[in-house]
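Exercise 7. Predict the joint structure of the components listed below.
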Amino acid sequence: MDLFLVILVDGLIYGAWLFIVSVGLTLVFGVLGILNLAHGSLYAIGAYSTATAVGIYFAYGGDAFPLGSYAVMALAALLVAVVIAPLLERGLLRHFYHRDEVIGVLVTYGVFLILEDAIKLIWGVDPLFVYEPYDLLGMVEAGPLFYVAYDFLVIAVSAVAGFAVWYFLNRTRRGKVMLAVIHDREMSQTMGVNVDKVFLLAFGAGVFLAAFGGALTAPMISVSPGIGVNVIIVAFAVIIIGGLGSIEGAALGAVMVGISRAASVHLMPELELFIIYFVMAVVLIFRPEGIFVRTQTRKI
Amino acid sequence: MKALSDIRVASLLALALLIGGGLALPDWALFLMTIGLAKALVSLGIVVQMRAGLVSFGQGLFFCIGAYVAGLMANFAGLTDIFVLTGISVLACLAIGGIFGPLLANYRGIFFAMLSLSLSMILYGILSKMNSLGGTDGLNVAAPTFAGYAPEGRALSLSLYLYTSFIVVAIGAILRTGFDSQHGLVSLAVRSNELRVEYLGASVRRTNAINYVISAMLGGIGGVITGLAIGHVDPEYAYWTTSGEFVFVAILAGYLSIPAVFVASIILELVRSFSNLYFPNTWQMVLGVFLLVIILTLPNGLGSLFHRRREGGS
Amino acid sequence: MSTSASTGTPALETRGLMKSFGAVTAAHDITVSVPERAVWSLIGTNGAGKTTFVNMVTGYLHPDQGTILFQGQDITRLGPREVTRAGICRSFQIPQLCSELTVLENVLVALAIADPKPPSFFRKARESAAEDRAMEILKRFRIEEHRGRLMTELSAGVRKLLDIAMSMCGHPKVMLLDEPTSGVAAEEKFPIMDLVMEALTAENVTTLFVEHDMDIVTRYSDRVLAFYDGRIIADDAPDEVLSDPQVQRYVTGTAPAEASS
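Solution:
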């Protein structure tokens, strides 16, 4: 029973993290039809920006109000989104909307290559550390083990983010319009929807979520070049499991992978690296396009 | 028959050029050419599949298998003969490709790209964890021998280069024949309109599976030569960014011209060496910009500058 | 003109086909028996179920219930590829052509695939024997002058003819034409249908065509099936069907008919 609880908690923590870093990717694909290979780089930029911003915060008297560093983290992610999203979407991606989905992958691959070096040029190659926010909340006892309370903050933030996205899409006017575009872009256009604006908003949200994922993670790791490269792989697997373009799918996929990985870490450590692909393979056998699939329009 | 003699003439010319050029080149250039040509084979594998409308982000899988065949056979079985190693890697890739080809042939577009990428990453994961195979450090690979001949120094570089040249010209000729064949035209038809092809009575799945296996073998040959040339193999060969470079070359070259793939691959190796020396933190950026420019301006790659798809009629 | 006294197995038969998409019934109890060498037309407004019928017969969709028989053989669960190989071909409302291939290459592909041997890895696609055969087919449909052109350079009529020419490369026994003259200039409609029907009857192909143009219907078909709301509401000779009040109400939208020419 203890082991079960440990696996559950570990699984939820990792699953929550997976959700945050994957939901932006699936949202952008659902709305724009572009699978953003640069998603990991945006995550990394979020982490780096946070490291810098929090560093500055504490250097200029943040010690007086350390919890403010959390706000700084969120703001850093927001800044990244506000600066980069319009540049990328208006300046580059919009030229490729009418083309094949795979072209979108290739274009974002080019962006990934550019951003990875941009990161090195801006922040150098040495790792950055920003531990303070991670230690701030202390430790917490859950079952037989002690956890860093920050890990539970990640769960909370992830749940809030998931709820926020769900609420936006299903309960606000703008969100329902976005859902319509996800469902059928052409039809929405004929109905008079300003698809351009929806695209920019969706892409902006995707960039923010990616950067925010990085911001959240920065205090837990050493921020160095290449952290984004691994994240993409994991995020892809999650959204393939959940179904490309599906927010619920990303949530379900994240939880499934999170718990599977926690289980394998405690029960069969050799499998840890592949468990995500194992889950993906099993899901694809029963649902070849992921758990929640978009309906296809008839061609002939 | 005229076309066949065209291919023969072109092949002999290419071979002559490569041999003649090679004899004149310094060692570092020979090395670069060998790597460039070998890696081009891997990118040709992507081109084979692009002609049917698929972009594989997982050629690293077979590139790595080929490379590790070289590493494992040399270290654990004492086999260093390059002909044998090439043969084994082709068989290994044929087997693995034969298993996954039919499975992946059910997918298209993004799904195919990401699943092929995942397979490659699985191999990366396996190799990274297997310390008996060197783990993330990989294995050193002994110098190849050539049917008993065991050269060193410049003789080795030259032998490897000449072997690669012969393989490359032979494969180029075979692929050209394949592209011009009925199967090749059906592949192009699949790229344009899968539904039509099915309604004509052909299996798109079968076409894709066959192309996948061909690509697998090409990846393996490229991998075994590269592993032997560099003298070291590690799991990075299967990492997705390695696959990405092969995709870059394939996009840069396009799927219309085979020589363009070799040229593009060699260019990439030149840029890589040059950049590593002078600006190690911007060469990826250069690649990225280049890729975007090509996609925007020459959607069919460099090859489309020389080989207009328009030549339909006669 | 009638289809009674059909000897032997019907070329194509459907029994009780049912198909729904959510709340929409695209096919309700479609039972049809088409004798060999018949030339029938299918009429009905958009969404009445004609294309759904064609899609089911050719394996693109599977009926929720019912069976489809080709020369007595159950083909209900087969996909487009197997149905084509069995001997039923179709043309498309929007011509399905290979956009990156020239007109000649499109036919070369069709021929290469129709061949019982799988496409060769060595034989050149463009060898002279194959090109000659392809040119013959293009000439038969009077589109040989377009052989080097791409799809985007062709008029609607030429695209339709190419689409049909490709479908015929497999020498089918049953052919379903989905709106063969839609989008075609008025003065080209009859010439195109003449060409197509000549080619089909020359090979004794059982033909079903979907049409909106009643002149084409009366001129080329022996019998007409009128669809409405997923059901067949009339099944008779053209004159009878076109003067049927239900058909006039739900399909042609004409007042009590004047005698057609």
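Discussion. Chain B is about 75% helix and 0% strand.
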